[in-house]
Structures are given as structure tokens and as C-alpha cells.
Amino acid sequence: MSCIKNTSGTTVEATPDGLGFNAFTAMQPRPPARTPQELRNGRRVKDADLPPAGVYLPNNNVLTPHMRSPEYVQLSTAAAMTLGLMPGKMHRCGCTRCLNLLLTYPEGCRANCAYCGLARHREAERDYADRNFIRVDWPAVPMEQVVDLVARDVAASPFHRMCISMITHPRSDEDTVSVLKAWTARIDPGAIPVSILSNPTTMTGDDVRRLRDLGADIFTVALDAATPALFDRTRGKGVQSPHKWQKYWEILLEARNVFGPQKFGAHIIIGMGETEYEALELVQRLVDLGGHSHMFCFFPEQGSLMDHLPATPRDQWRRVQLARYLIDYAGVRLEQMSFDEHGRVSDYGLPASELDAVIDDGVAFRTSGCPGKFRDDVSACDRPYGDSPPSNIASYPFQPNRTDLRRIRRQLAIPVVRA
Ligand code: SF4
User: Fold this and answer.
1) Is the pLDDT assigned to residue 194 strictly greater than 80?
2) Strand locations in 51-191, DSSP E?
3) What pLDDT score was predicted for residue 419?
């Protein structure tokens, strides 16, 4: 078995219109269908009320047991394999460096984000714990078992970081605290630091401070959409979802004040209809605030409201990936860069030889996220194949080799200038 899920979805080098980017007009989500009353809010699972028996591997052909946080959490397939809870091998990766945990409830996430496999509109189709998210399954595991496995030998743990992903649920603030306490009671957060992927919609400033006081190291906000209009279309009123751009920014700015420089950030998905300039303007704004951006390449998640739309063309993704790295880690500013009439990067604001060195270093093209123990600009959160199939990698979960870099250069249309 493999952690690589075969999902539908195109990964193209350029869009059919030849523009080479996913334009706003082309990226309209379909409207969510109405869920019958008897299938809402996890009724099927709660009525059957089957007791869980240890690790639950997602299987849409059986009735899902009744599992809820904080006793249960879901783990990425990569984390479950790294912990030995699932068999399988990952393409060109020995393990993942980040233990990604996801809160779980029969009611699932109450939001309806258009690009997300966990969204509420899927209630009729499959139970929450069986839904794919960033292209893979998420096994459910007792939190105590997760802590036991890691606490056995923290020094030898492959994990450089643990991350708790909140979802939109009335219990998620309290249960995030409980999961964090269960971890720090047995594992020194100095040895394996903890990140919080927050859900601002239900949070207050007090919640942010409490998580810092309990030992969380980094706080991130999944803005995901790069502009207010895209946010509203994909996460707000456009898809009957409760999120508001302004509330997300309120909690993001609170995180800057509470966690401090380099200890907060925002997720941005590239290719949902923003221009490259708009995405990079947001990246620059985050850097100016003292934070970082963590980027994802849009991939049409199976079962989501955007699963009929094209994945981000590789040339668009590579340009933004490279420019974001230069702004985040190389001191280049947005104003030094040039953009064409479609908002695409036409010049990165660096002499060719310096740009060449950054490309050759390869780190710019690795998965971005909270740092691990190798380098500040190398993410612990490597999310193997979370935003692309391994046949056309968007975010490299490992150091790209020379063959990979040749392909990346072709996608960027930047030839080698040095001998
Ligand atoms: S809030 Fe997060 S988990 Fe819930 S639907 Fe939106 S992106 Fe998915």
C-alpha cells in the first residue's frame, strides 16, 4: 500500500487559454447541494453509536464508529506511516518530519470551504472520518496512543514538530487545549515544538493567549484565499460557509502580538483565481508584519466543490513559489520585482547570478511551513504529495535533486546562466 492516493484532477503545464495561470473567472466553485435533514450533523454515526476499537483506518464501506476529540484525533497518512500505524511506503520519502493532528467529531467541520475535502456539504456522501483531505486519508487514533508512541523515545523521534489543526466546530477551542495539554504533559515542547493551525471563526484573543501560555510555539491562520473577494467566494457567503476575512485578520494580528516575530504565519493557496501580484502582495504584507507565509498549490480535491477545476499550472506555481521564497528569506521586496499586464512575475528583482544560486539551492521549491530542525527555511511540515501527485510534484517534500531542478527550471523558463 502507498500513501499516495490516486485522485482525479489535472496537473497541467499551462491553462487551455494559454495564459499560464488560473484566472478568477475560470475558478468558480459549484454551489453546495442541500443535505437531507437525516444526514446532517453526523446523525448516521451518532444514531448507530458504534464504540471505536483503537486505530480506525478510513473505509467508506463500513459504518464509522463514534469518535470525537480530545480522546481521538486524526493523523495524516504520512504521520500514521511514520508512527507505524499504517503500512506503506512514500515515494522518495523515508518519513514525515511533522506530526499533523486533526480534531475529529461525527459532526465534522461545520464550514463549507469550496476547495476542502472536509467540508460540510459532503455529509450525505461520507462520514467525517472517511473524508479525504489534501489528497490523502486521515486515520483516527486515540490521542493517548499517539502520545505513548512518541513519548517512548522523544530524542529518537523523527518528528521535528507537531501541529494541531483545528476545524470549525463548537468544541474545537476547548479540545485543542486538551490535546495540547495531553502532549505537553508527557513530551517536552522544547524537544518537539507545537504549532497551532487555528480556526479564527470561533476564537477570541484569550484563546490565542491561552495556547501560547500552554506551550504552543507557532500560531498560523489558514487564510487560504489571497484576496477578500476570493475568500468570500470560497470560504464565506459564496458557499454558505461562516468565515469572514476580517475575523481571520483580527486573529492573525492578535497572534502577531501574542506569539511575536517569526512565530506566526498564514497559509495561502495559489491558483484559486488570484493574480501572482495579489498573492505576493499578501506575502510581503506578512513579512512586513514579522510573519511568514506557508504556500499550497491548488489541487482539485476529489469530492470538493472545486474538484472540476484545473490544478494550478506549474509555471504559475513555480513563479510564485520562487518569488515568495525571495521575499520571505532573501530580503527581496515586492517593489523590486516586475509584473506583466496579467499580474505575472516578469522579473524577480535580483541579478541573474544571484537568482541562479537561489534556484540551484532548491529549498525555494520544497514544501513551505513551520520550520523544523535542519534550517529556518526548511519546513518540518513536508506534507508529502498534499498538493500534487508524485508524477508532477508541486511542493517537494525532500531536497530536489539535479534532475528535479532541471525540470523546475523548464517550468520557470529560466535557463542556467552559469557554466
Ligand atoms: S474550516 Fe478548514 S477544515 Fe473546515 S472546511 Fe474550511 S478549510 Fe476545511
Assistant:
1) yes
2) 72-75, 98-103, 140-142, 161-165
3) 45
Q: Please compute the mean of the pLDDT values over residues 218-234 and round it to a whole number.
A: 98
Determine how many CB atoms are found less than 10 A away from the CB of residue 30: 14
| Residue 391 Cα to chain centre, angstroms | 20
Would strands 98-103 and 72-75 be described as parallel, antiparallel, or unpaired? antiparallel
Nearest CA-CA partner of 280 in 206, 224, 345, 373: 345
Which of 102, 104, 105, 113 best tests ligand 1's pocket when mutated (most atoms within 8 Å of CB)? 113
CB 119 less than 6 A from any atom of ligand 1: yes
**241 near 29, Cβ under 8 Å?**
no
Cβ–Cβ < 8 Å for 141, 80 = yes
Tens digit of each residue's pLDDT (9 = 90 or more) over 62-108: 899 999 999 999 999 989 999 999 888 888 887 788 899 999 999 99
Q: State the cell numbers at 136.
A: 490523502
Question: Measured in angstroms, how far is the CA atom of residue 166 from the centroid of ligand 1?
Answer: 9
70: cis peptide before it, omega within 30°?
Answer: yes
Residue labelled with grid coordinates 506503506: 88
Question: How far from the centroid of its chain's Cα atoms is residue 26's Cα?
Answer: 23
Alpha helix stretches (DSSP H) within 68-213: 77-82, 143-151, 172-184, 205-213
Q: Using an 8 Å Cβ cutoff, are 9 and 298 in contact?
A: no
Name the least confident of 8-12, 318-322, 342-346, 363-367: 8-12
Q: Comparing C-alpha atoms, which of 296, 207, 215, 294 is closest to residue 250? A: 207
- Neighbour count for residue 353 (Cβ, 10 Å): 9
Contact, 291 vs 251, CB < 8 A? Answer: no
Determine which residue's CA is closest to atom 6 belonging to ligand 1: 113
Please tell me if the CB atom of residue 111 comes closer than 6 angstroms to any atom of ligand 1. Answer: yes
How confident is the model over 382-404, as a mean pLDDT? Answer: 91
As a whole number of angstroms, the distance between CA 18 and CA 161 comes to: 41
pLDDT over 90 (residue 379):
no
Q: What gap in Å lies between CA 100 and CA 137, rounded to an integer? A: 12
Nearest 10 degrees: Cα torsion 216, 292, 321, 268 = 70
Q: Among 159, 93, 118, 14, which residue's Cα sits nearest to residue 390?
A: 93
The amino acid sitting at 345 is V
pLDDT of amino acid 52: 95
pTM exceeds 0.90, yes or no: yes
